[in-house]
Design brief:
Blueprint (H helix, E strand, L loop, with lengths): L3 E10 L6 H9 L15 E10 L6 H14 L11 E7 L9 H10 L14 E8 L3 E2 L3 H10 L14 E5 L1 E4 L5 H9 L2 H6 L13 E3 H6 L10 H8 L31 H11 L3 E5 L6 E4 L6 H4 L2 H17 L6 H7 L1 E4 L3 H9 L2 H4 L2 E6 L2 H7 L1 E4 L4 E7 L16 E2 L28 E2 L7 H7 L4 H6 L2 E3 L9 H7 L9 E3 L2
Parallel strand pairs: 1-2, 1-4, 2-3, 6-9, 7-10, 11-12, 11-17, 12-14, 17-18
Antiparallel strand pairs: 4-8, 5-10, 6-8, 13-14, 15-16
Length: 501
């Protein structure tokens, strides 16, 4: 195996004049920490920072060009402890329009190939290090994530396991207290939770991604927004492409003015994340004593803030269909044969149902909830677009062991986003530690009413006990109440129960 490890830092640039200089400097000043000096002593790093300017309308390209001129002129003066690094810049043709982050990242990936031969890639490790144009890499990120990748070793077929790995890392925020709930959750996920919560969010944040270049190519690169109706039609015909494309059916219809859906420009991280999982890729969160990336939060200026919540639900629903419902796993057939229940008859549960393909939505047997008003008074979800009434039952009707799920001891919790609860995450044990929170409340409930029992018995009780479940209620928000109730029905996460919210 070649001793050279190539690392391309991939930066898509669009109107980033206020941050791009700091971002590029952080990528150009990488070093090997003392604790990795021995294990990486035989590794020769070849780092290229690849920036692609996606038709910015500000001074981004001028700043990039000046940075390159300065680095090239002072290359001989760089500190010896720093990794050998080259800065490459690509830019959209003058007068063209932005094509989106997916397109820009694909163009950035191509930059090294334009100046160096690629014949030796099969012999050397060649990784891509993804970075947003407003974020900052800490000085040891490349060394840390490279070491983590190399430590995965070889599989039973003689291939290095890094070839199909997506490696994330822990991060901090700029400003420090922004999106505290998300940051605490993402940084505290165990190896198991990174996989089991994959449909709730991208459990590995894109600006922390580290992956094999050959693996990205095998996935067909990032999804790019089509610019012609012919390209859109190709996306409609999934079997015409050798690559999996996560595109919801609603995105393939032209707008009233005949234009292609603008949503195909966004959520490129979500689309690639699930393509990776569907292809058998593995997920890893590299944990270090200090974060390796500073993830900047700028209100209203990030792509994530532009991504409609409805689109994310649609894409996660489509990914869940393709990976779980139509998947090749042994448990996949139970979802289609038995049907399944949706936990949560509120907004998220209904949006998830509406996002499903008709043949999948037809296998929804019932909603379940804890809200007596929905169960006893509303009773059904009736939407003409679905074409049938779907009953709303008490979640305890799903319990494999009724004695383990007593309706009189149901746990209720208050949904909150207060910052002080962020300290109480404990995803390793899959529950919220409540020592720093208010205690979960056990709300006194009367035994099921006759009406409720009659309502529930309209469905075969033996069927309910074995139904797989999709939970569409946010985790870690109710001081452990939701998690306690979900545990009481006796399902196995990742097999016959998934969280999607």
């Amino acid at each position: 195996m070649c001793s050279v490890v190539k690392v391309d830092v991939i930066i898509a640039v669009y109107n980033a004049q206020d941050t791009i200089k700091e971002t590029v400097k952080s990528a150009m000043h990488q070093e090997i920490p003392a604790h990795l000096q021995t294990s990486l002593s035989n590794v020769e790093f070849d780092v290229v920072v690849c920036c692609y300017n996606d038709a910015s309308t500000d001074k981004s390209i001028e700043i990039l060009n000046k940075l390159k001129k300065d680095y090239d002129a002072n290359a001989s003066l760089r500190e010896s402890k720093l990794m050998e690094t080259t800065l490459l810049i690509g830019t959209a043709a003058e007068g063209t329009s932005s094509r989106g982050a997916g397109y820009a990242r694909n163009q950035a990936v191509k930059l090294r190939d334009m100046i160096t031969p690629i014949d030796d890639d099969a012999k050397c490790f060649h990784f891509l290090c993804i970075l947003d144009s407003d974020d900052i890499m800490h000085p040891t990120r490349i060394a840390e994530q490279t070491s983590a990748m190399l430590s995965l070793g070889y599989g039973q077929h003689g291939k290095h396991l890094s070839e199909k790995a997506l490696m994330g890392c822990q991060f901090d925020r700029i400003p420090n207290d922004s999106t505290w709930h998300y940051a605490t959750w993402a940084n505290s996920l165990s190896d198991e939770r990174v996989v089991l919560e994959q449909f709730r969010e991208c459990t590995l944040l894109q600006p922390t991604w580290f992956l094999s270049k050959s693996w990205l190519k095998s996935l067909g690169d990032y999804v790019e927004s089509p610019i012609t109706s012919e390209e859109r039609d190709k996306l409609k015909k999934a079997n015409c492409s050798p690559y999996y494309r996560l595109v919801h059916s609603s995105e393939l219809n032209c707008t009233s003015s005949g234009e292609i859906s603008p949503t195909l420009r966004i959520a490129e991280d979500t689309r690639l994340f699930y393509a990776h999982i569907r292809a058998g890729g593995t997920l890893h969160l590299h944990r270090t004593s200090a974060p390796l990336v500073s993830y900047r939060h700028r209100v209203g200026m990030s792509q994530s803030s532009e991504t409609p919540r409805k689109l994310l639900i649609q894409l996660r629903a489509k990914a869940w269909e393709d990976i779980v419902f139509f998947g090749t796993d042994d448990s996949a057939s139970s979802w289609s044969k038995r049907g399944f229940a949706i936990w949560g008859a509120g907004r998220d549960g209904k949006e998830f149902l509406k996002a499903l393909a008709p043949e999948v939505a037809s296998r929804v047997i019932c909603f379940v909830d804890v809200d007596s008003n929905k169960i006893e008074k509303i009773k059904f979800y009736d939407n003409p677009s679905i074409g049938r009434k779907i009953p709303i039952l008490h979640f305890s009707m799903l319990a494999k062991n009724p004695n383990a799920c007593n309706v009189d001891s149901v746990v209720f919790g208050r949904v909150t986003k207060e910052k002080n609860l962020g300290e109480a995450f404990d995803t390793n044990t899959h529950k919220r530690t409540i020592s720093k929170c208010e205690e979960p409340k056990r709300k006194k409930q009367k035994t099921r009413s006759k009406a409720e029992t009659m309502h529930a018995t309209s469905i075969n009780q033996n069927l309910l006990k074995d139904l797989p479940v999709v939970v569409c209620v946010a985790m870690y928000r109710t001081s452990g109440a939701l998690e306690s109730n979900v545990a009481s029905i006796g399902r196995k996460e990742g097999k016959d129960l998934w969280h999607i919210s």
